[in-house]
Design brief:
The chain is an alpha/beta fold and about 250 residues long. It contains 10 helices and 9 strands.
């Protein structure tokens, strides 16, 4: 297993603001096995807790490595429901931050909205402790799950990630354009950040810019890359932003 990182871009300046950590499995015989093949299997067992801890550990180590090299980025890490429901989850996160000397403000925990959390109040209490340290919380795949409004009203949330299934049809489907506009407006009203996922075409990006979505990720902007490529992309984006007057 190893991690790759998909950059998240500021839609106004074009600057890389952070990355999302994504897990890859390089099998000796079957080659690269995508996460949608092995993550669901891990989620059906206790393996997802061990796997999730390893991902957090590796992602935090990596963001500190970039920071030591003069690159400040926010690291987004997906957290499973099983992890959130562990009584020691807060302790695990704090221990990993201390282990690597990582500023909590550089960590963004991403909760998949399509997975139902059994006890929102208990999970909310744990997230509140982490947010008090400076860690931010995002709702991933927003709009595709069981309880979009419940998550926003009962969990401490800082960022909404608009699911790629809505972004995919931007410009060609007026209904999805209206839905994306509604999510962006709702987030703005609540003081939340917005990230559009799965941006693959120029017209999608232009629509998101017009709707004042703050940030985006997707293959149009950058595919997931190996750790060594992130500083190159980030520094190039900042040079371009400075040239453009941002």
């Amino acid at each position: 297993l190893h991690l790759v990182y998909q950059p998240v871009f500021d839609l106004r300046s074009g600057e890389v603001l952070g990355v999302e950590a994504l897990t890859r499995w390089q099998h000796p015989d079957r080659g690269t096995i995508p996460p949608d093949r092995f993550i669901p299997i891990a989620e059906e067992s206790d393996l997802i807790v061990e796997l999730g801890t390893w991902i957090l550990d590796e992602a935090i180590r990596q963001v500190v490595s970039w920071r030591d090299a003069g690159l400040e980025l926010v690291m987004g890490v997906n957290v499973s429901t099983r992890q959130l429901e562990q009584e020691d989850f807060v302790d695990v996160v704090q221990q990993l931050l201390a282990k690597h000397g990582a500023p909590p403000t550089q960590l963004l925990l991403e909760l998949t909205e399509s997975v139902l959390v059994a006890d929102l109040d208990e999970v909310g209490q744990r997230l509140n402790v982490l947010r008090a340290l400076g860690i931010r919380v995002a709702i991933d795949d927003f709009g595709t799950g069981y309880a979009s409004m419940s998550y926003l009203s009962r969990l401490p949330v800082d960022v909404v990630k608009i699911d790629h299934s809505f972004v995919r049809r931007l410009g060609s489907d007026s209904t999805d354009s209206a839905l994306v506009r509604s999510v962006i407006d709702l987030a703005a009203t609540l003081g939340l950040g917005t990230v559009a996922e799965g941006v693959e075409r120029v017209d999608q990006m232009e629509t998101l810019q017009r709707l004042q979505c703050q940030t985006a990720q997707g293959y149009l902007l950058s595919a997931p890359v190996e750790p060594a490529a992130v500083p190159v992309l980030a520094r190039a984006s900042r040079i371009n932003a400075l040239v453009a007057g941002f």
